[in-house]
Design brief:
It contains 4 helices and no strands. The chain has 84 residues and is mainly α. The chain has one domain.
Length: 84
């Protein structure tokens, strides 16, 4: 099973898994949110992350719903290569 990305986790938490709804909540185009999951549109290793400039909006939406995402759910989990 593939681990959830920060985008997947936040979309589930705030928009019932619907990226179109997340885009609406953030007042951005649907393609903007879709692009965060597109490896061709993101820097290497950043696919599935939420760009920093949108984090305040995510936290505002979460706060208005009395939901507080764990900070680890906003960050991409890195795989350990055995070197720490």
């Amino acid at each position: 099973m593939t681990p959830k990305t920060p985008l997947d986790t936040i979309t589930d938490l705030l928009a019932s898994g619907n990226r179109s709804e997340l885009a609406r909540l953030l007042n951005v185009e649907r393609s903007t949110v879709s692009g965060w999951a597109n490896p061709k549109r993101r820097a290497r290793g950043m696919c599935g992350t939420i760009p920093e400039k949108y984090i305040p909006g995510i936290l505002e939406i979460a706060g208005s719903r009395d939901v507080l995402p764990e900070i680890r759910n906003l960050l991409l989990a890195r795989r350990s290569n055995g070197n720490g």
